[in-house]
């Protein structure tokens, strides 16, 4: 086994070097503190591997993303979301019979306990769908005892019902119950858009596009929400409580909330006469908090392969549905201007997954308030896969260290003498 040498306080330490499947190299510091008394410091964990994982491989320099060894481009072109869920969670693509059984089990668990509907009455009409989603998922743990295997199926089946109900609540329409004769994505669209007075027919372009988008969101190794899931799950917390924290982490604008922020940003730029130069200048100005939303990534220093696929999908779906969207033109121009700008070139900032996804969601009629919820729906199998992997590999309790920078020891002085 190769080692890395660390020289510290006149002492030389040999640290094991671990190599991954794709020859990625990690220096194992698990025994560093025990032997040297020192810890490593890595705010934001940009250089820290928190686990070994067999789920997703990313090469950020080359723009490669694979789930369980399969290229994202091939999965997006040929697989269904439900197949990808099976692949991520159980590690293998299902055969035809297995897929049918899996689909059936995801169908029969879609209903929410009737009492849970009352929770929605307690939320204000303005409640953010991501907050509702997180609260409702956490409350599933009050209904179902801790038995991870069946709860995994329950959660995969019920999240879309919870999501669609939260949308119906936000627009004041009656809930539409899940239908067992519809496939996964069609059932979700039906619950979102059907109204009692008329029949809702699922458009196959809309269904296929959403199915592909869910695949593209399904996993992305140790991102903020997935790391949160592994962190919380390492304490032994149940599946529902754990996943609800992943949903909360995803809601922020630097993570899943970016898809909503992109559309808001494009609207502002449109109203401002499509003045790209002004917004590029703002993004570059250190004293201005404005960032180009949907640009940049911690791992990708090249094109995000998902962004490429989503951009193609945006063109395709607008064409197939006979629509135009001025925001797509603004996004394309903004991308062009940014990619020619030295600031973005130097920092290797490219469009990420969220840059074009909102445009596709808009084209297929999904409301902006639901964009991040859709991200959560797509990411759920990834969170679950990591939760299972972490539990099965008996990961230690996640508990980072810190460097304390507060006051030194000082005597307590009673209030009357202060
Ligand atoms: N606009 C302008 N400048 C940027 C941007 C941006 N979108 N992203 C990074 N930079 C600059 C940043 O100011 C810094 O400059 P300097 O070196 O002069 O200080 C440099 O690029 C490196 O940025 P960083 O913040 O250290 O990079 P990070 O790895 O910590 O941040 C990020 C990654 C995604 C948080 C960041 O790029 C960002 O805020 N992007 C906009 C939000 C966004 O689109 N988020 C979705 C991420 S992809 C989907 C997901 O994972 O949820």
What would you say about this model in short?
The protein has 418 residues and is mainly alpha-helical. Helices cover 51% and strands 7% of the residues.
- Averaged pLDDT: 94
Q: What's the overall geometry? A: globular
**End-to-end span in angstroms?**
60 Å
Helicity level, as a percent range?
40-55%
Provide a count of the helices.
18
> Are any ligands bound, and if so which?
carboxymethyl coenzyme *A
- Beta-strand residue fraction: 5-15%
Largest sheet: 3 strands, antiparallel
- The residue ranges in which pLDDT falls below 50 over 5 or more consecutive positions are none
Helix and strand pattern = EEEHEEEHHHHHHHHHHHHHHHHH
Task: Tell me the number of strands.
Answer: 6
Structural class: mainly alpha
Strand order of the largest sheet: 1-2-3
Note down, in words, how this protein is organized.
The protein is mainly alpha-helical. The chain has 18 helices and six strands. It has helices spanning 32-36, 72-78, 81-90, 96-108, 117-122, 129-140, 148-171, 184-193, 204-217, 224-233, 239-250, 258-271, 276-284, 305-320, 326-339, 342-346, 353-363, 371-392, and strands at residues 3-8, 11-19, 25-27, 56-59, 64-67, 70-71. The strands form two sheets. The protein has a three-stranded antiparallel beta sheet. It is globular, with a radius of gyration of 23 Å. The mean pLDDT is 94. The structure holds carboxymethyl coenzyme *A. The site of carboxymethyl coenzyme *A (CMC) has 20 residues, from helix 17.
